[in-house]
């Protein structure tokens, strides 16, 4: 029997405004956290994924960033200039056969400072054109409302998500966009990788660490996270009210940890670490904080301010689906001393001797995706959506102009086969898959262009040199065949 994915399976790709758009000050856009994120040419591999350190921005650094219009050291200011290329890029997605395109709206393009009363019409128009372009070709837009770009004024003036006012500011933004795009957009995601506030508090939470007492900072992060949980629940409430046919999901980083050995202490450590991963989706799916998280606050002496109304809003507005990013897995041990470590998705993990790694040290593990899917489905019984997956690699343009990225094809193929098994052998309800960065874009962690995920090559280097021209890689034609055959081509070799 021919192996194919479920009818109407949503194949596509995912991007984030701050990593592609550029046009950082154009048409009334305000400056955001991403625009002051400095590119660092990190040679020390152990620091490759220490995103917290790499993105820890101080007031002085912001002042320095604001004193220059330089874009080469602040690459998210130019992105891949999608702002001016979006039609051409969507046309390439159409050629690949995309059924869905996940992208984010930059809050600062709609509300330049975050606290503005009225929206910026030019920003609303831009995303309307993008949405209409997708709809013209029957591509379902899936929109992320917040993906690493809190407006800078919101950060400087209010301390970002630490301030309770953030909930109202964000609700105002959500109300504006849903009223504008209702009937056109069916799928929404509130916060990209909401858990990442713990790993990069500036980019996700708009928190300037040096403004707080060091011993208080963890509590500050959890307070900001609480505001995001409430804002996310309110967003679901608003979206459902304005457009009852829409579906709203959470989005979490699916960090999967294995115990380094079968020693019960390692297994216990793994369970402990997995709870740290699950506490975010547990809260958003069940609409209430898991007991183990509240106990953790208590044991640490944290006082997180939450009102009765907050908790009621969270309870009344659980997510409709669970979306997640999946790139790699790593190990944990009760005593990690002497064990080899490796970079993982915005963390450092213990190396798994059974896995190979990407050029950035992320361990490649398609079976881990199947494990992740089963774990999430068994835990939540909600439809799942893979919002990000892909391989960051250095591509070589051959003399004849070809880019033969067989390593990427192999990575994607193995992961897609694991998805197939999860659906048909494990009974998981998976309704879509968006490959990360179907067109090369700036990496989040290091703002590097040389870490490419795309099936479409963009002629641009780490310092912003290049023509911005787009080229089809070998994986472009391969993914086109996968989508056109609804996955059947994965099994034809
Ligand atoms: C996810 C983020 O964590 O990982 C994306 O949602 C990011 O924004 C992706 O780009 C890959 O990470 P990186 O650092 O390689 O870009």
**Total count of strands:** 14
Proportion of beta-strand residues:
5-15%
CATH-level-4 superfamily name: Glycosidases
The profile of the biggest β sheet is: 8 strands, parallel, barrel
Mean pLDDT: 95
Helix content: 25-40%
Q: Architecture, according to CATH?
A: Alpha-Beta Barrel
Structural class of the helices, strands and pairings? alpha/beta
List of distinct ligands in this structure: 6-O-phosphono-beta-D-glucopyranose
Poorly predicted runs of 5 or more residues:
none
And the CATH topology? TIM Barrel
Please provide the ordered H/E string of secondary-structure elements.
EHHHHEHHEHHEHHEEHHHEEEEHEHEEEH
Which of globular, elongated, flat, extended, rod-shaped describes the shape?
Answer: globular
User: What's the N-to-C terminus distance?
Assistant: 15 Å
Strand order across the largest sheet: 1-2-3-4-5-7-11-12
Write up this protein.
This protein has 493 residues and is an alpha/beta fold. The chain has a single domain, classed as TIM Barrel, CATH 3.20.20.80. The strands form four sheets. The chain has an eight-stranded parallel β-barrel, surrounded by five helices. A two-stranded parallel ribbon has the order 6-8. A hairpin with a 2-residue loop joins strand 9 and strand 10. Helix 14 packs parallel to helix 15. The longest helix is centred in the middle third of the chain and has 26 residues. 6-O-phosphono-beta-D-glucopyranose (BG6) binds next to loops.
